[in-house]
From TrEMBL:
<comment type="similarity">
    <text>Belongs to the thiamine-phosphate synthase family.</text>
</comment>
<dbReference type="GO" id="GO:0004789">
    <property type="term" value="F:thiamine-phosphate diphosphorylase activity"/>
</dbReference>
<feature type="domain" description="Thiamine phosphate synthase/TenI">
    <location>
        <begin position="15"/>
        <end position="186"/>
    </location>
</feature>
<comment type="function">
    <text>Condenses 4-methyl-5-(beta-hydroxyethyl)thiazole monophosphate (THZ-P) and 2-methyl-4-amino-5-hydroxymethyl pyrimidine pyrophosphate (HMP-PP) to form thiamine monophosphate (TMP).</text>
</comment>
<feature type="binding site">
    <location>
        <position position="85"/>
    </location>
    <ligand>
        <name>Mg(2+)</name>
    </ligand>
</feature>
<feature type="binding site">
    <location>
        <position position="65"/>
    </location>
    <ligand>
        <name>4-amino-2-methyl-5-(diphosphooxymethyl)pyrimidine</name>
    </ligand>
</feature>
<dbReference type="InterPro" id="IPR036206">
    <property type="entry name" value="ThiamineP_synth_sf"/>
</dbReference>
<keyword id="KW-0479">Metal-binding</keyword>
<feature type="binding site">
    <location>
        <position position="133"/>
    </location>
    <ligand>
        <name>4-amino-2-methyl-5-(diphosphooxymethyl)pyrimidine</name>
    </ligand>
</feature>
<dbReference type="InterPro" id="IPR022998">
    <property type="entry name" value="ThiamineP_synth_TenI"/>
</dbReference>
<comment type="pathway">
    <text>Cofactor biosynthesis; thiamine diphosphate biosynthesis; thiamine phosphate from 4-amino-2-methyl-5-diphosphomethylpyrimidine and 4-methyl-5-(2-phosphoethyl)-thiazole: step 1/1.</text>
</comment>
<keyword id="KW-0460">Magnesium</keyword>
<keyword id="KW-0784">Thiamine biosynthesis</keyword>
<keyword id="KW-0808">Transferase</keyword>
<feature type="binding site">
    <location>
        <begin position="130"/>
        <end position="132"/>
    </location>
    <ligand>
        <name>2-[(2R,5Z)-2-carboxy-4-methylthiazol-5(2H)-ylidene]ethyl phosphate</name>
    </ligand>
</feature>
<dbReference type="InterPro" id="IPR013785">
    <property type="entry name" value="Aldolase_TIM"/>
</dbReference>
<feature type="binding site">
    <location>
        <position position="166"/>
    </location>
    <ligand>
        <name>2-[(2R,5Z)-2-carboxy-4-methylthiazol-5(2H)-ylidene]ethyl phosphate</name>
    </ligand>
</feature>
Length: 210
């Protein structure tokens, strides 16, 4: 099954992105989502080629945010598609059955739609306010996850749910208790001064054996 911790990359230049992604890999992340928004195509391609190589070297999953054609061109492991990106069905035709296609949700109706589209996982957020992404959907908070996960259980929907948006180490235990599958984080890992210790602590809270 999928890793329970996703690192969503950040950085304003190819160099910054590569540094942050390399650091995440070096300190134990094994699922990288390359998220490099509003850049020119050549820079994005150059970064994606380098990240593909790094992820192969570290045996990490390599997912590209938004750009299905780039994921196809580089044979990435998958893509993450938001509510205003290419639809899942079209991406599935381009990428095929074996690639990972994740989708964004903010409401239970979004979850129903992503499930109907046969997404492989859902990024449900935002958990709380974050400056990493502009134009956030309404903030869910713990109660928002509890409500949506409960509705999923009633409908016997079992698609893996990743919480995303402003997540800190202190939030992980209570988020997992809502029934989510895992978490996706960006700033927490990027800005950490002790990334190895942080990633170990995150995984300790994510892979809790009962
Ligand atoms: C795991 C995960 N969940 C949600 C998102 C947000 O995707 P999207 O809504 O397309 O917004 P941008 O990331 O494109 O700004 C994500 N990237 N990853
Ligand atoms: C990429 C993204 N999508 C979100 C959503 O709510 O769909 S929140 C978000 C930013 C996640 O970064 P950080 O861990 O630094 O808050
Ligand atoms: Mg997107």
């Amino acid at each position: 099954m999928y890793n329970k911790l996703q690192y969503i990359s950040q950085g304003n230049t190819v160099e910054e992105q590569l540094y942050n992604i390399h650091q995440a890999l070096d300190n134990g992340c094994d699922w990288i989502q390359m998220r490099f928004k509003n850049q020119n195509a050549l820079e994005v391609f150059a970064l994606a080629e380098a990240v593909k190589f790094l992820c192969e070297e570290y045996l990490a999953v390599f997912v590209i945010n938004d750009n299905v054609h780039l994921a196809q061109q580089l044979n990435a492991d998958g893509v993450h598609l938001g509510l205003s990106d290419m639809n899942v069905a079209e991406a599935r035709v381009l990428l095929g059955k074996t690639k990972i296609i994740g989708g964004t949700a903010n409401t239970f109706d979004d979850v129903l739609q992503k499930t109907a589209e046969n997404c492989d996982y859902i990024g449900l957020g935002p958990f709380q306010f974050t400056t990493t992404k502009q134009n956030l959907s309404p903030i869910l908070g713990l109660e928002g996850y509890r409500t949506i996960i409960e509705k999923m259980k009633m409908k016997k929907i079992q698609i893996p749910i990743y919480a995303i948006g402003g997540i800190t180490l202190e939030n992980v235990k209570s988020l997992m208790e809502t029934g989510i599958y895992g978490i996706a984080v960006s700033g927490l890992i990027t800005q950490s001064e002790k990334p190895s210790q942080l990633i170990t602590q995150l995984n300790d809270n994510l892979y809790v054996t009962i």
